[in-house]
Design a protein that fits this description.
Blueprint lengths: L1 H9 L1 H15 L3 H26 L8 H17 L4 H22 L5 H21 L1 H4 L12 E2 L2 E2 L3 H24 L1 H11 L1 H6 L4 H27 L9 H14 L6 H15 L7 H15 L3 H17 L2
Antiparallel strand pairs: 1-2
Helix pairs in contact: 2-8, 3-8, 3-11, 3-12, 3-13, 4-5, 4-6, 4-11, 5-11, 9-11, 12-13, 12-14, 12-15
Length: 320
């Protein structure tokens, strides 16, 4: 059983890639394929949020701010300054990461509820800037005219074509962050999460590593924002508010903080669950609150943690 589990973990990346390639061949409904595109974009962001919260132990309830920064930066660069999408995509991540660095340095001494409250404030301020800086962001009327990217003369102007671009970004992100988690830095981040004081005593530079995790998380949120902008073709500042940030954190919690597969599980489950309750959108925050309570009470380690614990118990029984 242990050998099977080890082999499964080793080839999980290849399995994920194969699954991503097969989805458009199975899902023929345009609406659900569009929903999958949104899910994959969210996975990129939540992978970064999982690194920050699940491994570094830093809670952020304002990640929609970095998402919006990446989206608006990419839109402005490609529409106003005629920059290529392929250059704007990584630059959106770097721009969001630069903002993330400033935020991380300013809040580096904060922990727990204080950090969470500060992240909420940052999210609110960012949304206000998006809404009121009309000369750049077009304000409340939204930013229009964002073009689809073009790859070797082929316009990625359908959900099926755009899907493979997002899937490639998800695969690269999952692999890169997975390697980081398994590295010395990943082990140091877990040590900080468990006991920061003890980690510092053992020589871990906790402050530097927490800032680094925040920067990486903000970078991935910016990349996700860029992908969203060119999928949607239109941006509204109201799409990057507090409810969106709570939704991302809930996805990370539902999937299981500190589990590599957690972001994928959490995003897919909650995205499609939300579709069944979309008629109650006026009560979105109430529903999110109830879901959060249920997850904490019945699945404190998330869906991934729940099944991982169940598998471990099964292995112990099988070993008797």
């Amino acid at each position: 059983m242990r050998r099977i589990m080890s082999t499964a973990q080793r080839f999980s990346g290849l399995f994920l890639l194969a699954l991503l390639l097969c989805i458009p061949l199975v899902v023929k409904n345009i609406y659900y394929l569009h929903l999958m595109n949104y899910s994959l974009i969210a996975i990129v962001l939540v992978i970064g949020l999982n690194l920050l919260s699940g491994y570094a132990g830093q809670i952020s309830i304002g990640h929609a701010a970095f998402y919006g920064i990446g989206a608006y930066f990419s839109a402005i660069m490609t529409v106003t300054y005629k920059m290529s999408f392929w250059l704007a995509l990584p630059l959106s991540g770097f721009f969001a990461a630069a903002f993330g660095y400033v935020v991380a340095k300013a809040t580096s001494k904060l922990k727990g509820a204080y950090l969470a409250i500060a992240s909420i404030g940052i999210g609110v301020i960012t949304q206000m800037i998006m809404t009121n800086w009309t000369a750049v962001t077009m304000g409340a009327q939204g930013f229009k005219g964002i073009k689809y990217p073009v790859l070797f003369g082929l316009r990625l102007n359908t959900d099926a074509r755009y899907y493979y671009l997002i899937a490639a970004v998800v695969a690269i992100t999952y692999w890169a962050v997975g390697r980081l988690i398994d590295s010395e830095m990943g082990r140091a981040l877990r040590a900080i999460r468990e006991d920061e004081t003890a980690a510092q005593f053992m020589g871990v530079d906790a402050g530097r590593l927490k800032v680094t995790a925040f920067i990486i998380s903000a970078f991935l949120a910016g990349v996700a924002g860029s992908l969203l902008a060119h999928l949607e073709g239109y941006l509204s500042p109201y799409s990057f508010g507090f409810a969106q940030s709570v939704g991302f954190l809930l996805m990370a919690l539902a999937g299981g903080l500190g589990y590599k597969i957690g972001p994928i599980v959490g995003v897919i489950v909650l995205t499609f669950a939300r579709e069944y309750i979309r008629f109650f959108s006026d009560y979105q925050l109430v529903i999110y609150g109830l879901m959060l309570i249920l997850i904490i009470v019945f699945m404190p380690k998330g869906i991934s943690g729940f099944f991982s614990s169940a598998f471990d118990k099964l292995m112990k029984k099988g070993g008797r």
